[in-house]
Amino acid sequence: MSALLLDIKDGIATITLNRPEVYNAFNDPLSYELQDALKQAEKDKSVRVIVLTGAGKAFSSGQDLKASMEGGKRNLSESLHKRYNPIIRAIRNMPKPVICRLNGVAAGAGCSLALACDVIIASEAATMIEIFVNIALVLDSGSSYFLPRTVGYHRAFELATKATKVTAQEALQIGLVNKVVPAADLDAAVQAEAAYYAAAPTKAIALMKKMLTKGMTDNLDTVLDYEAYCQEIAGNSEDNAEGINAFLEKRKPAFKGI
Fold it and tell me: How far apart are CA 126 and CA 162, in angstroms?
């Protein structure tokens, strides 16, 4: 891989978008390498949590417009189906938590990428902007799904149609991110979060990820039935037995993710 870095250690897979000279803008190689890295992290049984971040000053500035114009105008629908949508689906279908280490600007598809993650920990220097309207395009890569569910329709409409730049503190206030820390503390905060999930009951968390996504779209009766289905699976896991034994023995559970 040339456009990103993949490091796996202590149950944590760190994926770093590595085109800092263009603020980690997406070209074809980065798009396909990120798809591959997510597949590798999902298949690797030693990985319990994924951290997604960007090298340098930015998280991702979205599509590399210069690269997109090379060879003439491209089919944007085809580009989304082949390049971006598989990434968003991979993150949302990932049976492991995905933490966004939001180190700088997340713009356009980069903002969508951040919103697709399960937890977002932002540096005070980070910003988020749905910049599509500035070049007369519409939201893509899942932003029209995540944004209104996170901040409500009216705020989402404003952010989308005005390309309003949201600071890290503003993002925290409206619920776009989970936590904001000084830039110097970002690595420690992300490491602590990742370490928690690396030691957590992975199977139960994977089920809850599916349940919460389903809960945003399905009716109550469907969700109640799905809860019962998932609880039966969780209740037959080795981690459930370990959790009960640890409670009875008054000790900290040692979850294995199975």
Answer: 19
Q: Report which of 89, 192, 69 is spatially closest to residue 135, judged by C-alpha positions.
A: 69
pLDDT at 2: 87
How does DSSP classify residue 194?
H
- The per-residue pLDDT for range 108-150, each reduced to its tens digit, is 999 999 999 999 999 999 999 999 999 999 999 999 999 999 9
Q: Name all domains of the chain by residue range, CATH numbers in brackets.
A: 4-198 (3.90.226.10), 202-248 (1.10.12)
Rg (CA), the chain: 19
In degrees, rounded to 5, the angle at the alpha carbon of residue 72 between the alpha carbons of residues 71 and 78 is 95
Whether the Cβ atoms of residue 56 and residue 104 lie closer than 8 Å to each other: yes
DSSP, collapsed to helix, strand or coil, labels residue 107 as: strand
Environment class of residue 32 by beta-carbon count within 10 Å: exposed (0-12), middle (13-18) or buried (19+)?
Answer: middle
Q: Residue 134: what residue type? A: N
| Measured distance CA(39)–CA(2) in Å, rounded | 17
pLDDT of residue 72: 66
SS3 category, 76: helix
- pTM reported for the whole predicted model: 0.94
Would you place residue 45 in the very low, low, confident or very high pLDDT band (cuts 50, 70, 90)?
very high
